Task: inverse folding
């Protein structure tokens, strides 16, 4: 692997750059498509229903990046390559960003910025309730993602807060399942991946000493 | 490109009204596939939006034309729910090239005096074709305005003479796994079935549809013949019909069978009755950004509300 020639900090920096660029691409593509659409181009590539397509794209990418974020710990465990832990925060924040854009598109272009409509929909429609719950749970995780907050909260409290990811993910999966008509396979594929990632966390091999060594330190995610 | 061996009902270009259609290279190829001129052997036959080269239809102008902006040909032929070809909105345009729309027959049978197997080209030749521009409203809360070409279903039913016992009409879609890759997923039970009450079927608005924008239907829009009942949600507008049966009992319909709490037999467009999982008060007209209010019976209340007098439409969804 090329990365063996690089120092750990160089590996992390490279991985961060690659990850940042990679995870930005779907959003960048959407921005370009909307620019084309709004300047009257007929080749924007968003199809006949661009609002719906955008809501779907931002939603599905948020879910994919969420699963990527959850895949990091098992990946590190299995490969022994610790560097990817350093991109976990970035992945989590991208998850949140896509989810936020997803909500803003829905609120702005589906509900036409009506707060009362939004509140009605949250209360009446199960898939919105679950989606909003997922995003709401994600918010403190996004806010406390910084080194400053890790320091302020201390590693134990921080970790407890971030365990909420294990609740918000099934909520997001349920949200996805409930919006589709009929028996469709896509949500089940993502749910299976989530189940596998959870099972992977049960892989033995983490002694208390190892756990202590791996405890989150403020500078670890810089 | 030249199409030889045109059907005898084909309308020559010089007699056609002008239109502006969006054409692209992939649409050209798709049309060639749809017209049977290029083999659609590959699973990914590029059967995208049909081309202006699809044979034109001779049709009379009708008074059933809504005065609203018509949705573009490209949008109508690239944004489809036709799960037999995949569940993505773009899948039917991508994969429906494998549908063999000719030769095609519809069997009309059941409680009729004169059951018959009709060839679709014979129907196009003999039935009174009209151009009708209808609103189309999907249950997913998006809508279009579509210039269809078709003939009243009542004209077809009169030929087979429903008996006095006939109360309902059932429709069946083709379900050939060799032509339809989406059939391997049981999104609903295949074959896709739909139904109408006999008076709904005989209503002047109910259209056996064979064309779109003056030309025969592209595969992804339900070639070669489909049902259009504009006051009902889109899924009742069954596509690629192979059989019609007159019955005395309410026939099962695909979505109602799957989820009766969400999809009723009648499925009249009704802003006051929400889908259990989403609101039906508003819809997104394809081509517009902001949503618009949904109209009772999709704006056809004057013509059809009488069919449901005395029925609680919250109960009979």
Result:
């Amino acid at each position: 692997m090329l990365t063996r020639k690089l120092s750990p900090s160089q590996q992390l920096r490279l991985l961060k750059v690659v990850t940042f660029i990679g995870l930005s691409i779907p959003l960048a593509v959407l921005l370009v498509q909307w620019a084309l659409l709004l300047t009257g181009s007929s080749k924007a590539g968003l199809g006949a229903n661009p609002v719906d397509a955008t809501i779907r794209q931002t939603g599905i990418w948020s879910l994919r990046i969420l699963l990527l974020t959850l895949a990091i710990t098992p990946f590190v465990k299995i490969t022994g390559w610790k560097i990817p832990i350093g991109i976990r925060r970035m992945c989590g924040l991208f998850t949140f960003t896509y989810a936020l854009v997803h909500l803003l598109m829905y609120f702005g272009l589906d509900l036409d910025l009506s707060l009362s409509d939004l509140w009605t929909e949250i209360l009446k429609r199960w898939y919105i309730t679950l989606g909003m719950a997922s995003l709401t749970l994600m918010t403190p995780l996004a806010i406390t993602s910084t080194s400053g907050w890790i320091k302020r909260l201390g590693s134990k409290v921080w970790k407890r807060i971030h365990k909420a990811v294990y609740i918000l993910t099934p909520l997001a999966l349920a949200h996805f399942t409930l919006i589709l008509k009929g028996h469709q396979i896509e949500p089940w594929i993502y749910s299976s991946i989530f189940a596998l990632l959870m099972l992977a966390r049960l892989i033995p091999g983490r002694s208390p000493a190892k756990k202590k060594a791996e405890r989150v330190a403020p500078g670890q995610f810089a | 490109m030249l199409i030889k061996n045109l059907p005898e009902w084909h309308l020559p270009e010089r007699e056609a009204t002008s239109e502006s259609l969006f054409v692209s290279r992939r649409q050209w190829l798709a049309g060639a596939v749809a017209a049977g001129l290029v083999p659609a052997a590959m699973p990914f036959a590029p059967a995208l939006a049909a081309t202006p080269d699809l044979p034109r239809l001779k049709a009379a102008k009708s008074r059933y034309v809504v005065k609203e902006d018509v949705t573009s040909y490209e949008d109508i032929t690239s944004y489809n729910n036709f799960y037999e070809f995949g569940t993505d909105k773009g899948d039917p345009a991508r994969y429906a090239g494998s549908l063999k729309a000719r030769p095609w027959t519809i069997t009309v049978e059941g409680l009729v005096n004169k059951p018959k197997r009709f060839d679709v080209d014979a129907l196009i030749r003999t039935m009174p074709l009209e151009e009708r521009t209808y609103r189309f409203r999907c249950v997913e809360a998006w809508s279009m305005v579509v210039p269809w070409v078709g003939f009243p279903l009542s004209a077809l039913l009169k030929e087979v003479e429903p008996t006095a016992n006939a109360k309902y009409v059932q429709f069946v879609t083709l379900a050939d796994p060799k032509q339809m890759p989406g059939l391997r997923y049981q999104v609903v039970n295949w074959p896709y079935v739909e139904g109408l009450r006999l008076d709904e079927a005989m209503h002047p608005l109910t259209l056996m549809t064979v064309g779109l924008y003056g030309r025969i239907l592209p595969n992804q829009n339900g070639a070669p013949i489909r049902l259009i009942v504009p006051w009902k949600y889109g899924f009742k507008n069954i596509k690629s019909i192979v059989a019609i049966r007159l019955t005395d009992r309410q026939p099962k319909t695909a979505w109602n069978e799957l989820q009766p709490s969400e999809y009723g037999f009648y499925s009249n467009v009704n802003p006051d009755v929400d889908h259990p999982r989403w609101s039906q008060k508003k819809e997104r007209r394809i081509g517009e950004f902001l949503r618009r209010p949904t109209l009772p019976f999709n704006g056809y209340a004057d013509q059809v509300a009488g069919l449901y007098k005395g029925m609680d439409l919250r109960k009979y969804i």
Notes: Residues 8-38 of chain A form the longest helix (31 residues). The mean pLDDT of chain A is 89.
